[in-house]
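Could you help me review a protein record that somebody else here produced? Do not assume that whoever made the record got everything right. The record follows directly below this note.
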Amino acid sequence: MMSPLLQTWLQALPWLLGAAGVTWLASVFMRNVTIVDTLWSLLFVLAACSYAWTAPQLGPRALLALVLVSAWGVRLAVHLGLRNFGHEEDRRYAAIRRRNDPGFAWKSLYLVFGFQALLAWLISLPLLGAIAGDATPLGWLDFAGALLWLVGFFFESVGDWQLARFKADPANAGKVMDQGLWSLTRHPNYFGDFCVWWGLFLVALAAGAWWSLVGPALMSLLLLRVSGVTLLERDIGERRPAYVEYARRTNSFFPGRQRH
């Protein structure tokens, strides 16, 4: 017999795939799959809502997890949606399109949208553990997780704001952002995501959901080795020579003082 927790997790998958399918349809008409970036964080909010809907009761930990993931997910979706609106397809997706044409419009359903829905479903395990797990009172692990989430949210949101202001100034055209949080790490937004998900894991761990370690571990792998730092910096030195000197002076991921 299937456990209630596993059943709750499985029931979220059709919702995520459905949201991915609807967004894919929009991308076909737009001929631009960059919209998947806006969808990404909202998939976690949708997963959390699905877990909450099927949970027998919602204790303070469940409410904490819902608030934290919703604040993170909605902020990131709005930021990326506004940033990408009216622009051409992101170079990453344009490259995927070139490699998979003809027929990319159909292939993107599973190569881009379906794949991201599955990733979000796996990474959302801490949300499952926190929302549908042990409904014990909040403890020190919950507060430690919320504090780590807050550090991540600060780095991500403030870093995005600082970069947007920097790019909006015509005097900075062609320059590399090396101020504020960007002087501590070359990727404050990715480091922020890292902290957010390890913070959510601590909240889940407080409910005994040690198995949800898979979620932040997978997110960390994506940020550090797959679609985050590694992909972004693969050829950035060729496109922006000034970045080479910036990279020499500034930590790649974890914050630290600049080198001289």
